[in-house]
Amino acid sequence: MKIKLDENIPTGFAVVLSSLGHEVDTVEREGLAGSPDEEVWKHAQREGRFLVTQDLDFSDTRKFTPGSHHGILLVRLRDPGRQALSRRLEAIFRSQDAEQWQGCFVVASEHKLRIRREP
């Protein structure tokens, strides 16, 4: 799966995803750190990448309707520290078939994973 990590996701997580067979790019590596969300979104869509982010600006499913994009994983943790975030993301990607999330809007919390598919 082609994945883009937003700048609020630890860049070291790209190594974990790559080891699981995903093709990963990061906002930081592309030189997009600090860019407007719209710019990050355009790049992710143009490259056909599933976006992993903590940014609530990507939470509006009316704007980011499932099926109209390559997919979003919005991570919402009570304690979003780097270690907690990395642990949760690794657990998700090791236990789930992320390929099935293409075009979906996925929200991950500490213990839940909600997947909204195309209507």
Report the strand count.
6
Flag low-confidence runs. Answer: none
- Element pattern in H and E: EHEHEEHEE
Strand content: 15-25%
Average of the residue pLDDT scores: 95
Euclidean distance between termini CA atoms: 22 Å
Notes on the protein architecture:
This protein has 119 residues and is an alpha/beta fold. The protein has one domain. Helix content is 26%, strand content 20%. The chain has three helices and six strands. A six-stranded mixed beta sheet has the order 2-1-3-4-5-6, with helices on both faces. A hairpin with a 4-residue loop joins strand 5 and strand 6. The radius of gyration is 13 Å and the shape is globular. The two termini are 22 Å apart. The model has no long low-confidence stretch (mean pLDDT 95).
